[in-house]
Amino acid sequence: MRRTRFSEWPCSIARTVDLTGDWWTPLVMRQAFYGARRFEQFQHQLGLSRNVLTQRLDALVEADMLDRVPYQDRPTRYEYVPTEKGRDFFTVLAAMIRWGDRWLADPEGPPIELHDRRTGDRVQPAVVDAATGEPLDIRNIRATPGPSLPDHLAAHLRALD
Amino acid sequence: MRRTRFSEWPCSIARTVDLTGDWWTPLVMRQAFYGARRFEQFQHQLGLSRNVLTQRLDALVEADMLDRVPYQDRPTRYEYVPTEKGRDFFTVLAAMIRWGDRWLADPEGPPIELHDRRTGDRVQPAVVDAATGEPLDIRNIRATPGPSLPDHLAAHLRALD
């Protein structure tokens, strides 16, 4: 199966894409980041079927991106709360927001703005080199084989350099 | 059609996902960032069919992510070179690399390392607030309606706050 194959590729991009390559999955996480917790909130706001939403929420719980937390007895009902791994995934969506706002947004401006809850200041995501704080520019970056890259793929990478 | 619908949503994440929601598309861009230029390089290194690769390259040229540049006459042959928009998309893959390296990598370490071509130093991507340089933490961030968000979606967003 295709999904399994990508999840086993020695590539953090392929593994992330495998998790989010379904169109709904990143949008379910987006909605959780914007504050959705209950099934009905996700469903109403995303307008997807109960069936598809159930599958996506289950997959995100299985992947340890969301915790399923009971908030009511008889019948038991659950809220879906981002885990630490899930919260950290916001950085991937933030990179999409930055790029999408720049290259795909409508002329009148972005659909969503991010603000710091503590200061109220506008937050503009940037993808930088942690050491220097400089925005990443692929023209200045070389990819080299890491510890878990199989030899034949390392050979491909070196051939491109 | 699903793809069309997402591309028209007022959400930079949905629009980016629409472009990359196909599993192969971000991996074709990855290969271009790592130095692949010619059809055979992409095909050999990704191991996908000529048919699928042709579709993905055409879609990326159509989306102004790659330029198709002739490098040979009779028969004319082309190289695929990232445009400015395409190069900027590396930031989205860099955010995936960071997150995937942290949460999905094998215990022996990441499959790929990034280095600065000028200094040779290791590059570690970080997703920060451009104004403060602080790493983004969704717990400190509130999403508010921007200029291009339709009213009914703005109401959803406010209801979550």
Write a structural description.
Two copies of one chain form a homodimer. By secondary structure, chain A is of the alpha+beta class. Chain A has two domains: 1-88, Arc Repressor Mutant, subunit A; 90-161, no CATH class. Chain A has helices at 2-8, 12-20, 24-33, 39-46, 50-62, 84-88, 90-103, 151-160, and strands spanning 66-72, 77-82, 112-116, 122-123, 125-129, 141-145. Chain A has a two-stranded antiparallel sheet. In chain A, α1 packs antiparallel against α2. The longest helix of chain A is centred in the middle third of the chain and has 14 residues, at 90-103. Chain A is globular. In chain A, 40% of the residues are buried. At the A-B interface, α2, α3, α4, α6 and α7 of A face α2, α3, α4, α6 and α7 of B. β5 (125-129) of chain A pairs antiparallel with β5 (125-129) of chain B.
Quick description:
Two copies of one chain form a homodimer. The first copy, chain A, has 161 residues and is an alpha+beta fold.
